[in-house]
Amino acid sequence: MDIFARGHLSRIAALALASASLLAVTAAEAKEITIWCWDPNFNVAIMKEAGARYTKTHPDVTFNVVDFAKTDVEQKLQTGLASGTAAALPDIVLIEDYGAQKYLQSFPGAFAALSGTVDYSGFAPYKVEAMTVDGQVYGMPFDSGVTGLYYRKDYLEQAGFKPEDMQNITWDRFIEIGKEIEAKTGKKMMGLDPNDAGLVRIITQSAGQWYFDKEGKPNITGNAALKAALETVGKIMSANIYKPANGWSDWVGTFTSGDVATVVTGVWITGTVKAQPDQAGKWGVAPIPALSIEGATHASNLGGSSWYVLESSAEKAEAIDFLNEIYGKDIDFYQKILQDRGAVGSLLAARSGPAYEAADPFFGGEKVWQNFSDWLAKVPSVNYGVFTNEADLAVTAQLPALTQGMPVDEALKAIDAEVAGHIQ
Amino acid sequence: MALARRGGIGRYYDVNGWLFVAPALGLIGLFMVYPIFWSLWMSFQAGRGMMMKFAGFANIIRLWNDPVFIKALTNTMTYFIVQVPIMIMLALILASILNNPRLVGRAFFRTAIFLPCVTSLVAYAVLFKGMFALDGIVNSTLQALGIIASPIPWQTHPFWAKALVIIAITWRWTGYNMIFYLAALQNIDRSIYEVARIDGVPAWARFTHITIPLLKPVILFTTVISTIGTLQLFDEVYNLTEGKGGPSNATLTLSLYIYNLTFRFMPNFGYAATVSYVIVVFVAILAFLQFFLARERDK
Fold first, then answer.
1. Are strands B51-54 and A136-137 parallel, antiparallel or unpaired?
2. How many CB pairs below 8 A link A and B?
3. Do B263 and A194 touch (CB under 8 A)?
4. pTM
5. Chain B partners of A399 at a C-beta cutoff of 8 Å?
6. Measured between alpha carbons, how far is A81 from A113 in angstroms, rounded to an integer?
7. Per-residue pLDDT tens over the stretch B89-117
8. Cα A395 to Cα A211: distance, rounded to the nearest angstrom
9. Does A78 touch chain B (CB under 8 A)?
10. A136 forms bridges with which residues in the sheet?
């Protein structure tokens, strides 16, 4: 009886051990990659598509795409990194390009360098520059914020303009057209949030400058492009050809409601513009207006983000391989996300695909994607530095005074003082 | 002997007593005392993110040359100087009106005025944002009544944005203070008022010469907690301005600036800790002043 029981016991123990090791083996094989990003209709949907593609060839790897608000992603990432507990962090995280250097420099060793794995020569150079620190490249370049001038053809026509009149214009001409459109149709030229420095950033980068120089030092008082950008925004505001907006959704409302004639912003807005089916055929896209200074172009960038792998991730190798397989090589994937989501990726090879050559009926049959990808290659590369958020707030702090007649040079001095206070 | 051990100094040597409070003491030490000292240590360090170095008084020197900090401090003090007296007076007046037993619908008014302070901070800020929009209900009402000719830019003009924050926090916290006064008023003997009325003391004089002096300890208490609350003001401004403290930093508070320094800007935990100690220092000074003034009047 005693022996019988003991025999049972050992058999049970062996079985338990076997099943435990079996479980351990399956746990080791099935890898789940956790990803944090924002915008369910854009980043989240695109990442799910990418994950599904990878799982097809690697059935052992699954994906958990977590959707947060952008500020929540940033805050959670920052607290997680600061606390030093890797368990609180995902395997892959989406970071907006303006903030990339901040994270890379202030949390050294937190992100995996992909320099040896990914062939960065195939990507738009300005995207790669945003993720390079000391010659090492971190992250996988994702969507571009290449800018365009979206305009309402019907309002233009009522005011006596043709689509050709919007091609390759200057900002001064843009303001003139805006005044005429308001006089003839009663519509404002654009929506503008005075608490958002996005337009200043677009114009400054279009002339190859930024708040900071190539070394990351503040470049404000002597920055001709920034000065011209502030002057331009000041002119737009004092000409009163804009509809004021308070916050993002308010700003989106200015053009979805049909109150304004143009939108100057990044290509990622296309999905929102097209979300109004009743406005189909009424929109066109032109390159953004240029400044009349040296180095001025019609191409710029607003926003755009990239994927980063956490160094501490248990699934680091799989995460890197996944990004490289899909975002680094899969041309077909880029066609799909362009058609489905209006995402212009920054992999240059993807620009030759059929989706880019397709005409868009919403824009009256224009080949808008072709245009955007042409402009993408022309976006001047700048160093976003690590203090873009600080500089942005310093700029918006001066905008009201600027419209009340404060000389631009004085505003630049105030911005410079505020930025200098943050750089310690 | 056993009795002597229970009371007096012997109590401190009772192991059982210490065992009972040990878990609580441990938690307080870990989650309150340790962070306080750690943040004090942090305020002497500077650097980007995790790369912190001991910097001596560099953060304190930086305060003086930081225009954004000066702006945030000025704004916070403006809220404090303008809003706290208005709110305390308003709460006092409302409390003494609602303390009148002959008032019809007393319970309703008490609840209605207290209700704002139990609403969600985010919900009410969002509501205010909508109400005070350029074409919101407030502007359209004021225009319909003929009080203003053109809509007030509540959210895009530096002055009006500040006014909006003051209106919002007054709306939310007046009822909270009023409850304290109501409770205290219940403890004042009604016969004092009876006597005053018989002696022909007018209502306003009864308020200033009976109600206010008798409520002094409660007024002191509410002033101190309102001071602390106002100096820590964050949610309203964050939600009304999408976290930016705009326009032109006109509504930026010290707490929002600390948030920006930690989560929005290049993370500088050391400097953020220094700014939070500025709040600590100001709260301490102001609370001391208030206690001091109240004590003076006692003599």
1. unpaired
2. 96
3. no
4. 0.81
5. 247-248
6. 16
7. 999 999 988 988 888 888 899 899 999 98
8. 10
9. yes
10. A133
